[in-house]
Design brief:
Helix content is 77%, strand content 6%. The chain is mainly α. The protein has one domain: Helix Hairpins. Helix 1 runs antiparallel to helix 2.
Length: 99
């Protein structure tokens, strides 16, 4: 089985994934602060309690997804580094690596 990696596009996706994960994390932090601000009296009642509970569950799931996205981006970075290490050990760097 031949293996290869075209490092440049893989690296671009890894960088985008890392940046997007951070952006989504910041958006969720701001949104969660806004939702929690509603709990201080702007919305009171059974439906409000149900909404806040459901939001917290959705927020926890989103955080798990964000952690997974970060782990995947970190794995991609490690793979890129390993492929580049193999190329440098072979005496030349090529953005497209075949093994």
């Amino acid at each position: 089985m031949k293996m290869h990696m075209n490092v440049e596009p893989v690296s671009e996706v890894q960088v985008k994934m890392t940046e997007d994960q951070r952006d989504i994390e910041e958006i969720m932090t701001a949104l969660t602060a806004a939702v929690r601000g509603l709990e201080e009296g702007a919305w009171v009642g059974y439906s409000a309690c149900q909404f806040f509970y459901e939001y917290e569950m959705a927020n926890r799931l989103m955080n798990l997804h964000l952690e997974t996205m970060k782990e995947l981006a970190d794995r991609m970075k490690k793979e890129i580094d390993e492929w580049q290490g193999v190329a440098s050990n072979m005496g030349e760097y090529s953005p497209r690596l075949w093994v």
